[in-house]
Design goal:
Blueprint: E1 5-8, H1 13-26, E2 32-34, H2 40-45, E3 48-51, H3 56-60, E4 67-70, E5 88-89, H4 94-112, H5 115-124, E6 139-143, H6 147-158, E7 162-167, E8 176-180, H7 181-190, E9 194-197, H8 211-216, E10 221-225, H9 234-242, E11 246-251, E12 271-273, H10 283-300
Length: 313
């Protein structure tokens, strides 16, 4: 019998059952087993794990792993968690990219059309229209131009926004004003009416959006963080909002999740809090991607190409 594939990191029995049903349907020749139900021999024999933001200690309990397939785009909890090189495969999925691009466009419109101001006015029963700002007069800066950032850039350009992009290394994308590297970041930030964070969390990006970078944004600019919470320094963000340099922040990710009930972000008038919903995994599409990776592995014996451990993505 072929060794079991470990399913690790499900948040609830209902989620686990859903994952099992969809993965099994996509890979009928494979035997996917929840990590919590695996005996010692099965854990020892497992060569592949399918994971959803798992506890690294659970992965460490699978000593025979050859590679790990994540159902999330972010894999920061796994990078550096092993005492030997193991390929970690991020989920690169068209449907996730489409969903994230949709969210970026939706919340960019929310800010461009002054929805936070109108929500405050409704609470205060104030009837006051604001001047309309065209997409063509609004510069949206994208921090990160991987699969998600590229898809978001395409949607924003099609919608008529001016789009600036920043990446760690040089890239060229049609319709974008590009910048790269530490030296290229300040000038890009200075053009932004809205800054969208889509970069992975690595040692280099942790705290990247700090007081200095927030101050480099245009006065009255807004921030959207759909990446990872620790990329933005929360205290610096609140200070920038309080002094009026930033108009608003849409936050879908936080240092710790769920966001603590006593966090000042919940009640801050300049913050929209979202419960990590901007780029949800589409399980049917993800299962097809995982199935293709496993089929290739069974055929060739070679794991898929993993993240660069030195870069963290």
């Amino acid at each position: 019998m072929m060794e079991a594939i470990a399913l690790v990191g499900c948040k609830s029995p209902a989620e686990e059952a859903q994952y099992l049903r969809i993965l099994t349907a996509a890979m009928p020749a494979e035997r996917v087993v929840p990590f919590r139900t695996m005996g010692a021999a099965e854990r020892e024999a497992a060569r592949v794990a399918i994971v959803a933001n798992p506890d690294p200690a659970d992965i460490a309990a699978l000593p025979g792993l050859v590679w790990v397939q994540s159902l999330w785009a972010g894999v920061e909890r796994l990078v550096g968690a092993f005492d030997r090189p193991i390929p970690i495969i991020r989920l690169v999925d068209r449907e996730m990219a489409r969903t994230m691009a949709e969210a970026v466009l939706a919340w960019t419109y929310y800010l461009q059309r002054d929805m936070p101001a109108y929500a405050r006015q409704q609470r205060d029963r104030v009837w006051r229209p604001h001047p309309y700002r065209k997409p063509a007069d609004t510069t949206v800066g994208l921090l990160g131009l991987g699969a998600l950032g590229t898809a978001a850039a395409e949607r924003l350009v099609t919608a008529g926004f001016r789009v600036a992009g920043w990446s760690r290394t040089p890239k060229a994308l049609p319709g974008l004003d590009m910048a790269h590297g530490t030296d290229g970041l300040p000038a890009m930030l200075g053009r932004c009416d809205i800054l969208v964070c889509l970069i992975p969390l690595t040692p280099e990006t942790r705290g990247l959006v700090n007081a200095e970078r927030l101050s480099a944004l245009k006065p009255g600019a807004a921030l959207i963080n759909f990446a990872r919470g620790p990329i933005v320094v929360t205290d610096d963000l609140i200070a920038a909002l309080d002094r009026g340099h930033l108009a608003h922040a849409v936050l879908d990710v936080f240092d710790a999740e769920p966001l603590a009930a006593d966090s000042p972000l919940w009640s801050h008038p300049g913050v929209t809090v979202l419960p990590h919903i901007s780029g949800p995994t589409d399980l049917d599409s993800a299962a097809a991607t995982v199935a293709a990776n496993l089929e290739a592995y069974r055929r060739t014996g070679a794991p898929p190409r993993g993240v660069d451990a030195a870069r963290g993505y």
